Amino acid sequence: MPETLRILCIVCPRGCALEVDVGGAPGNQVLAVRGNACRRGEEYGRREAIDPRRSLTSTVRAAGLSRRRLSVRSSSDLPLGRLVDAARALDPVVVTGPVKLGEVVVRDILGLRVDIVATDDIGA
Q1: What 3-state DSSP class applies to 121?
Q2: Which of 46, 65, 74, 95 could be 56's S-S partner, Cβ–Cβ 3.0 to 4.6 Å?
């Protein structure tokens, strides 16, 4: 019997209330998406029901530089279930030299093929 998930679409400002029917074996399959006003909403509902992902924004420590923290973000979305692990993996990271906007601070965090990049410049 299918399970119906209720998901608020965040693709556009419209914020459609989606109903996504999930069921089947061996894993979950999206059977239907209702409530979307556009095709992007349907795609979002399908993806969110099976493999939810989020971007990570945080800061890392900076030693001997103009500020004590550097803001960073993920280069693409991470699996929602690994987001906290990725944030914890940033705890021991310390940048020690000048860093430019967009520069990779942590490559391939947790083996997820997602880099952590600087969102600002920081100098000596």
Answers
A1: coil
A2: 74
